[in-house]
Amino acid sequence: MALASALAGTGTALAAPGPAAPGGGSVAAAPSAGCGAGAPAPSVARHDVPEPEPNDTGTSRHYELTVPAGYDASRPWPVILAFHGRGGTGPELQRFSGLSELPAIVAYLDGARSATTASQSWQGAPYSAPGVDDVAYAASVLDQVEATTCADTNRVYAAGKSNGGGFTDILACRMSDRIAAIAPVAAAFYRTGEPECAPGRPVPVIEFHGTADATVPYTGGGPAKPTPAIQDWVNGWVARDRCAPEPATRRIGPDVTVTDWTHCANGADVEHVVVDGGGHTWPGSLGYSGEGRITQTVKATDMMWDFLSRQTLHGPA
Asked: Which pLDDT score, from 0 to 100, does residue 193 have?
């Protein structure tokens, strides 16, 4: 089915990024089909992508696209696929996360609504829309982004909050051939989401969670909410990435502890950021990002970019 035409929408003017722009690492960039000195600037707006089979009903799913300040179609840029939480939207995530301030192309995807609720969500959760293949949808969005922008296919990342953060875990399990690394925040890793995770390569992970998160408890959800203890989930990726058992731990300010596993297969580091007393929130956000306390000791967006920008499909940048 041909892609539906882009809907009219408003883009967001982006400030000059603070972090360094891409392209200086030891792993060569892999230009996408959308690269070319004469290629037009992509539409910074709301876009459609058809609902993937077998759920294609003739309707489309949507995503918002932003490009970095100084975007140039002759040089490949990293891509971030961004996933909101249950009941949220892509534009909402854009507002509180600040991901569009990074030197990367960012696609904010919208989840599917089930027949029983108007809330948008992602597959793998008890409340997800039944039968919806969000992995295929994410792949379709990535196909479109790589076809219409100058993307570096070696540097595609997935970031998300809550249910969207849990979905990045599923993408790491199933799309490790395209997703270089993931960055979940206050994520709901439902045990039903991907019970047998077998990525095709070690996947770098940076994860943020507050110890006072009442929505997705740090110590696990118990029978009523089948989410694991966050440390157990982290340990799963430490094992998959074949990391050395002894991590390094450092304290940032009065309320943030960072645990790093850096001796992992193919350089696939695992970083666990714990906010003491932090709620179901995005660290460093200035607006509402969920229930509970928001630490300003660290900014999740800056920390994750420092981590993600060092990762590629073929090892550290």
From this structure: 66
107, 94 Cβ separation under 8 angstroms: no
- CA proximity to 51, closest of 64, 39, 60: 60
Has residue 200 got a pLDDT over 50? yes
Whether the CB-CB separation of 297 and 255 falls below 8 Å is answered with: yes
The token pair at 10 is: 């408003």
Q: Which domains does the chain have, with CATH numbers?
A: 46-209+299-316 (3.40.50.1820)
For residues 137, 3, 181, 37, the Cα torsion angle rounded to the nearest 10 degrees is 180
pLDDT value of position 9 = 32
Question: Cα-flanking dihedrals φ and ψ of residue 284, to 5°?
Answer: 85, -5
Rounded distance between C-alpha atoms, residue 86 and residue 139, angstroms = 20
CA atoms lying within 13 Å on the CB side of residue 4? 18
In 10 A of CB 17, how many CB atoms?
16
Q: Tell me whether strands 60-66 and 46-50 are parallel, antiparallel or unpaired.
A: antiparallel
Dig out the tokens for 21 from the structure. Answer: 């722009």
* This prediction's pTM: 0.89
Q: Is the peptide bond before 54 cis (omega within 30 degrees of 0)?
A: yes
Give 259-294 pLDDT, tens digit per residue: 999 999 999 999 999 999 999 999 999 899 999 999
